């Protein structure tokens, strides 16, 4: 069947596009074959930007990120002239921060447009509304020139083939040298942009920042004379019981750290690969042991009584205010905790080193997060402006230590930030106006940097070093499965519902094996087959 016209596909909406494109079946499977969507392509050459030397060097081999104790007093001016072409650049982004004032009331936005040489028209959508907004935008055939997509979107390869511009001629191999800040993005981040044998977008890098770990309130623990991390689950449980004081509304935990317990038991991240065969970690026997241990935490009443009804910000606030000692979150949350904590100047947090479950060394793993947040794509019919738009995206990826980074993150001196030594500290106006969401369009590799707080920067770096040292990456990252994109969310949702029922005591732990069997029968086994095929194709392309 010939490929449907772009307008036909986009008018169908995100869900409708899946149905339309599924009509282009291959041997009755529906959608595009794995060898097409996972077809190899010449990826951009990595050209590290020769900028500021870090105070604590990272390690590209492990994913450890560079750390800096202060911003340079004289930042490097890394660009010359405005990157834009004088025309409006339409964009659609999400944000998890409060929506800032519009451009007519936003001095930072106005200055950004002046520096870009093009008006950056940003439709900023709050995170909870993003899915519906994106679907209606697609359905109305009003995609802007630049838009961000999630790698888990249903029928992503087909949608991108119909809607997005092929960037291979601009970015493959040495051609990316024209965009030095994009060339600075690490190679492992580009994987999800490779679809249908083409480079279909610019990756939004996060490195190991999306890796989850257990934060600890270092200051509160030290005040109790506790300076050593527990060396087993039993010690962790005993510590949680010691710290919990219900009459003072203080509890060790604000959420059930089930994934932490799984990592204590050495359960690998996502899928387990051996000789080209894959096993989902849900199927491992240790999962039952992890659920039983999590139930023990619940029954010991070391969790805030509102845990199961709480929102994410509630859990963060409990930790920041000292009502909980531990919280499970990502490395990317570190700056927010520092910025929003309410416990005073002595506030200090660090990463709890994940112990082996039974106290044995070398058991625990750390599940490394996806280094790519999403894909920033250029609309297919904007090809005549591709270079100008890529120049804008390149500017928005200016790295730490440059004058361009200082402006795009902190705004204008004396207006949006004040200097503490050489470090920029956001003012209230800066915190309001600078959150435009364009870090979901393009970004540089994140630095480990807490302005004016050397100790917190060191703790952040030390925590990352521990995490990557025992890191476990999902071997299927960057591979596409049609079944995963269409039914993976549904079957994963049912497994998550079962998990919550077990944790809250509504179902016994013995219900878990049957839930996993249902997950496999309802699509998990098909996902495995497709990922194994994609894994083999990737291996062949690298041979």
Give me some keywords for this one.
38% helix; 543 residues; alpha/beta; 4-stranded mixed sheet; 5-stranded mixed sheet; 20 helices; 13% strand
Structure, explained:
This protein is α/β, with parallel strands linked by helices. It is built from 20 helices and 17 strands. It has helices at 6-11, 13-22, 34-37, 107-116, 130-139, 156-163, 168-171, 180-183, 218-223, 233-243, 258-264, 286-299, 312-321, 334-340, 386-395, 403-410, 428-433, 454-469, 482-503, 512-542; strands at 89-95, 120-126, 146-149, 194-195, 198-199, 202-205, 212-217, 251-253, 271-274, 277-280, 324-330, 349-351, 366-367, 372-378, 417-420, 423-426, 471-472. The protein has a five-stranded mixed sheet with strand order 2-1-3-14-6. It has a four-stranded mixed sheet with strand order 8-11-7-12, sandwiched between helices. Strands 4-5 form a two-stranded antiparallel sheet. Helix 4 links the parallel strand 1 and strand 2. Helix 2 packs across helix 5 (130-139), helix 11 packs across helix 12 (286-299) and helix 19 runs antiparallel to helix 20. The longest helix has 31 residues, at 512-542. It is globular and about 65 Å long. The two termini are 33 Å apart. The model is unreliable at 1-31 (pLDDT under 50).
